[in-house]
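Entry 14. Ran structure prediction on the chain below.
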Amino acid sequence: MVQLMRDTLLYLAKNQSSNELARKYGFKLGADRFVAGETIEDAIKAVMNLNQQGILVTLDHLGEFVNSSEEAVISADYCVRTLDAIQESGVKSHLSLKMTQLGLDISRDLCMNNMRRILGKAKQYGNFVRIDMEDYAHNEITLEIFKELRREFGETVGLVIQSYLYKSEQDIADLNEFHPNLRIVKGAYKEPSTVAFPEKADVDKNYIKLVEQQLLYGNFAAIATHDESIINHLKGFIKEHSIPLTQFEFQMLYGIRTQYQTELAAEGYAVRVYVPYGDDWYGYFMRRLAERPANVGFVVKSMFKR
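Output, structure tokens:
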């Protein structure tokens, strides 16, 4: 039953008609638990609040279903404006983005032009941009583009690797020559068993393997998980191998395990929270529900309260 609900939510996350319907109701669906707001100003306020608690941030202007070059350029404009707002406010935040939002499915050249504009601004400010990994259909081209941009922009750009994919161990090995800053996640898209581990236990096991692989290479690892048992295991691994605190950080999602975030920060670990914002929040919101279907109950309650 739980798996059926997950599959349904992931299907709805990609459904444009459902997206358009949900946006009419705005945050009445309970999206404000996971999304900081619809404007840059909302996002910066959330970042300030987290920074005051000793927590770093990655901002992401949400967007999916980009269908034209004009929309892709508008999305790129938002990314640049976000970097400007971070710089002007003095908050401690990086930027995260999806390349399909910047026109990857329309034209590779369009996407690259937008990426270069964003990364040029980030490099000017001494900031950092992470490219999110999307579904499997975009995996190889994302890796290819990352390598090209890494050669051009160096440490200004990083990438996400998903532990539910069989190929990720080899991908990290192939990327090692670039000494990349990698965010390791489990993966939130529905993929066939031909390319991804179908069982959660195998995804978790591979997650630990990938983080340890990245750390032993001497490269920076953004350890993105809310799983306390995995975090405790990796704390022990880090101590055993004398890995410096500057070589990794724990990353979590906005609105999830907030107390644990502050506890880790109080222990002296770098903690970074992924803070999404924007009016195109639906797909992201549905994937958060799919990761933990119990959150659907929270949404239903929110709808009746407002």
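The beta strands are 56-61, 93-97, 129-131, 157-162, 182-185, 221-224, 248-253, 271-277. Will compare against last week's run tomorrow.
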